[in-house]
Amino acid sequence: MARTRQTPIGRFGGVRLAQRRIRTSETLENNKEAVAQELIALGTTSITEIMNLDGSMRPLDEIPDYALRAIKKIVPMPDGRVSIELHDKVSVLRILAKAAGFLDNPEKENDKPSIVGINMRGPAATTEYAEVVDDEK
Fold first, then answer.
1. What is the DSSP letter of 51?
2. Phi and psi of 24, rounded to 5°?
3. What are phi and psi of 88, to 5 degrees?
4. Is the pTM higher than 0.70?
5. Residues of the chain with pLDDT under 70
6. What is the distance between the alpha carbons of residues 79 and 4, in angstroms, rounded to a whole number?
7. What span, in angstroms and rounded, lies between the C-alpha atoms of 30 and 17?
């Protein structure tokens, strides 16, 4: 009896990439709520939750955890103050709006043609001429 060999699919092109994508999408699917909460925290944090209006930093125990996660960079200044940079709020809010469907405009998309770029050609030009004679005598 002849033995049959199965070729392992792991060596074919693109299989490892597809397997990696599946694992990544499963991870994101399982942590969808945590990702959404993090994006909401980044998009809604205000600098006044970290700094006082006079420019001084609030005590660390008064700053909420989500506001601390929204900090991108802290740079100490020579005069003892600190410069705080938050993550880009506009890009985070754009991601949230897209995920929530706010940027989808179905009414606008209905006006778009479904097929674009059709070149139509008619039959070859053949013209017949006929002479009409009026018999009025």
1. B
2. -65, -45
3. -65, 110
4. no
5. 1-25, 27-28, 105-118, 120, 125, 127, 136-137
6. 77
7. 20
41-70: burial string, b at 16+ Cβ within 10 Å, e else: bbbebeeeebbeeeeeeeeeeebeeebeeb
Q: Is 13 exposed, middle or buried (0-12, 13-18, 19+ CB in 10 A)?
A: exposed
pLDDT in tens, 63-93: 999 999 999 998 988 988 888 899 998 888 8
User: Which pLDDT value is given to residue 4?
Assistant: 66
In residues, how long is the chain? 137
What is the residue whose two structure tokens read 């299989």?
15
Classify the C-alpha dihedral 24-26-31-36 as positive or negative: positive
Per-residue tokens: 96:
């949230």
> Is residue 57 classed as helix, strand or coil in its secondary structure?
strand
